[in-house]
Amino acid sequence: METPEGVNLSMRLASLPIRMTAFLLDLIFRVIIFIILAIILGVFGDASQGLFLVAIFILWWFYPVLFEVMRGGMTPGKSIMKIRVLHGNGTPVGWRASMIRNFLRVADVFASVWGLEFIAMFADSRNRRLGDLAADTIVVYADSQRSKVFLPEVEPLLPPVPLNPEEQKSFIAFGERYHLLSKQRQVELAEILEEMHGEKGAVAVKKLYAYSLGLAGGEGVKDS
Questions:
Q1: Which residues are CB-contacts of 173 (< 8 A; sequence separation ≥ 6)?
Q2: Contacts of residue 52, Cβ cutoff 8 Å, sequence gap at least 6
Q3: What is the mean pLDDT of the segment spanning 9-23?
């Protein structure tokens, strides 16, 4: 996935069995909490029945929402299975999206009776259930790995023209973020300085990276 800033994000979509296991674990945790609440409130007799029903309602509907928003997209079950919920663009899930995806779980349950839920997940390229489609959310592995980083092998160079401190910082920042930028974004940035280095495409990128190394290290070979 490429962000508007040209940064590449690599995420692994969570599989259906892993997601189902996480859901079952959360269901077990909620049942345990229900039992503990019933024991505690049972001490107060019939007067506590109303409180117990309110507690069940809040726990059933807001348990996943609170955990997903407050704990980086992970309920206890998801944390055990090492998966998390994110917005479709890879950003942390918010209140609105989390409530939509979890409140629509009832529709998912009815759809699963006819097999529609599983068809939707298998048909969608991001393994999204109906609630995820409505909220534009995805479920990924929390340990999603970045793609391997390949840095160009170049000799450090000093730019052929004097640069002020802010310009030097911009060159150095390019070198620091090089491995996060898409190839298209790298070329786009490098070709802005075509008048300086006289190159285009991948060659321009290497030249800009060489300038970054030269400025960052305080040493370099003067470009001719």
A1: none
A2: 37, 38, 41
A3: 86
Query: Can you say whether the dihedral through the CA atoms of 119, 125, 129, 131 is positive or negative?
Result: negative
DSSP H or E run through 84: strand 83-87
* Calpha distance 138→25 (Å, rounded): 19
**Of 70, 64, 56, residue with least CA distance to 101:** 64
Single-letter code of the amino acid located at 3: T
Weakest-pLDDT range from 105-109, 127-131, 187-191: 105-109
Q: State pTM to two decimals.
A: 0.60
The SS3 call for residue 194 is helix
Asked if residue 99 has pLDDT above 80, the reply is: yes
For the chain, give the number of residues.
224
Question: Does residue 23 register a pLDDT over 80?
Answer: yes
Tokens of 89: 């663009």
Q: Helices 49-70 and 16-42 meet at what angle, rounded to 10?
A: 140
Sign of the dihedral through C-alpha 136, 139, 143, 144: negative
